[in-house]
Specification:
The chain has 309 residues and is an alpha/beta fold. It has a single domain, classed as Metal-dependent hydrolases (TIM Barrel), CATH 3.20.20.140. Helix content is 35%, strand content 17%. The chain has an eight-stranded parallel β-sheet with strand order 1-4-5-6-7-8-9-10, sandwiched between helices. A two-stranded antiparallel ribbon has the order 2-3. The chain has a two-stranded parallel ribbon with strand order 11-12. Helix 6 links the parallel strand 8 and strand 9. The longest helix has 18 residues. The radius of gyration is 18 Å and the shape is globular.
């Protein structure tokens, strides 16, 4: 089983043992990557949430051959673009330069899009202004897009329709929309990224079941979006005795009781992508391996066609 995690926020300090500015345990990035590889992950896309994080993502991609970067600005971070006298032109020129000087390590433009659930961070006007600038990057570089859409009242789809001719392919990651939202995105020939947050409720599960296997991609969005016992999807996870191979979820401990061989409670990490596979396989009534293979082939074709694993 080969797996690609399309969304891993590995620039988050928690993967270095730092929580809210305070060091709690040792840097366990390498241990986390080892657990991911043991779960079958051959590549991870490290999300660039803004200019600084895009630089960090690229740095990680040079340090670990299985890591690749996205470059862009998350909608909730777009208020950072024009600050201290800096222009949007200067910001996006720096993003473009990062891509040009790191050929082969950057595989997507993003994370970019719209998010109306968290307007306290960036207004609709600012988000829409800077979302549109990302289409210039994808047109200039030929890279696919890593997209974010959260409760946008149709504005996201309208913007994509207006600019669909400017990019070849892309994925709407961490999808949590309705069946109507799904149909609209599929009509725009986009792929759909599914993680634990995509599988919280019975309604979520009903929509996730409708994602065509040739449009499906999987992710963790770690350290967020774990599958929790309160989620509807948790009931679909197999018991240990039902696992179809030898993989088992690693033990987890509270961060204060950290051990390098264990995950940290409430800190999602890439190896848990196997749970997303387990749930989606149940929903589609196919084997975990078949489900994983579909997602892998879709992801490889869009983001990694020039890479060998």
């Amino acid at each position: 089983m080969k797996i690609i995690d399309i969304g891993a926020n590995l620039t988050d300090p928690v993967f270095r043992g730092v929580y809210r500015g305070k060091r709690v345990h040792e840097d366990d990035m390498n241990k986390m990557i080892e657990r991911a590889q043991s779960a079958g992950i051959v590549a991870m896309m490290v999300t660039g949430g803004n200019l600084a994080e895009s630089k960090q993502a690229i740095k990680l991609s040079h340090e670990h051959s299985s890591l690749f970067a996205t470059v862009g600005c998350h909608p909730t971070r777009t208020s950072e673009i024009e600050v201290d006298g800096r222009s949007a032109d200067a910001y996006f020129s720096q993003l473009h330069e990062l891509i040009k000087t790191n050929s082969g390590r950057v595989v997507a433009i993003g994370e970019c899009g719209l998010d109306y659930d968290r307007l306290q961070f960036s207004s609709k006007e600012v988000q829409n202004k800077h979302f549109s600038r990302h289409f210039e990057l994808t047109k200039a570089t030929g890279l696919p897009m890593f997209l974010h859409d959260r409760n946008t009242e149709g504005d996201f789809a309208r913007t994509i329709k207006k600019n669909r001719h400017r990019f070849g392919d892309g994925v709407v990651h961490s999808f949590t929309g309705t069946e109507a939202d799904l149909r609209e995105l599929l009509e725009l020939n986009l792929h759909i990224g599914i993680n634990g947050c995509s599988l919280k409720t019975e309604e979520n599960l009903a929509v996730a079941k409708l994602v065509p296997l040739d449009r499906l991609m999987i992710e963790t969005d770690c350290p967020y979006c774990e599958i929790r016992p309160t989620h509807a999807s948790h009931a679909l996870l197999p018991a240990k005795s039902e696992n179809t191979d030898e993989w088992q979820m690693p033990e987890s401990k509270r961060k204060e009781r950290w051990s390098g061989e264990c995950m940290v409670k409430s800190r999602n990490e890439p190896c848990t992508i196997r749970q997303v596979i387990q749930v989606m396989a149940k929903l589609h009534n196919i084997s975990e391996t078949e489900l994983a293979n579909h997602a892998y082939e879709n992801t490889y074709r869009v983001f990694f066609k020039n890479v060998s694993f």
